[in-house]
Amino acid sequence: MKQFHIKYAPKEKLEGMVKEAKLDHWYQLYANKNDAWMNPERPTLHAWRLTTALGTGPVVTFDRNPYYWKVDTAGNQLPYIDRVVFEIVDNVEVATMKALAGEIDYQDRHIAQVQNYSVFAENRTKGDYRIGKVVGSGMNTMVIAFNLNHKDPVLRKIFNDRRFRFAMSLAINRQDIIDTVYYGQGEPYQPSPLPESPFYYEPLSKAYIEYDPQRANKLLDEMGLTKRDKSGFRLRPDGKPLALTIEIAAGNPNWEDACAMVKQFWEAVGVKTAIKVEDRSLFYTRKEAAEHDVAIWGGDGGMEVLLEPRWYFPFSVESNHAPLWQLWYNTGGKSGEEPPPEVKKQMQLYDQILTTPDENKQIELMKEILKIDAENLYIIGISRPPLGYYIAKNNFRNVPETYFGSWLYPNPAPFNPCQFFFKKGK
Questions:
Q1: Is the pTM of this model over 0.85?
Q2: How far apart are the first and last CA of the chain?
């Protein structure tokens, strides 16, 4: 990579390569050359090496790496499969249809929606595939994150009043969403470690989870949001309508359907609500810049609590509820905004966890963080995720019948894709 770095490469040569690549800066060229999905010439220790780069056509291809360092127990060099092809599709529906038609050898992400299961089950023989179980490590189907760092000072003040968050949680009929969107699978649940985790904290998992619009209205009234417009929507202290926009990254129809119901529940207590589905890159740009009202994402960190505490305090750029507080935390106070005392306390507790070798002490400290969450409800959840699934062609082998699904691993890495193979005679 030295040949693409400004410190080592001749300036004129580097500028020529940047111009040839139609880029503006050397570091853009460096990033592209160092990207395993974009540069076939990049050396790799992975089982397969890139041969057709992302963005150059309708597929991305990888061929087996002849220098791969793993062998099986019989001494055969891995991987077993010579070529891997990723087909680029326009949307989830196209991927689902291809899977049903038997055109995909193995897939779980995106296509494995609850509403698709019955049609996948019905087409198993025709598509010549099997269905396996994926046990998710996530703790929530959908996390609703109000932007506590909102640039509108009036909305910021409203969002940071915990009574507002309590009210918006109580206004949601979670069982209705579970029955309608998730086909009755799951149970009402706030973003909290799963019961199977040693970090499980019941007061948080059940905080303000009941459906109680009367109490929600009372809390909003207590905040002084009593005035309403002609349509019955509440007015902000400055006289403007109390209106929110829920932003969703495109690609998850369950979130869109669930948010359509959340909109109805929130408007029933007088909070005008709009829904905006947008490209994922735009979604990330907006929420990292704290330009959103409400952001929707999945509930990571149900089992890997210490590795992925994004929803338990402002830990990373994925902490959609407090992008500027996490920036303050991760820059040692040099950037972002200083959070309130109770959030700073959470950060201090987590830092203490990182230097504490005793597991019981770690659990004790983490539950102090969760106690603060239960008292403030910085984010809102809907339900525990239903059991997931994958599809694999019947001749595609060495995939476990049941496995844990987690982006942190990320699966399927723990069961060695280099050992996947196609059964002969099929």
A1: no
A2: 43
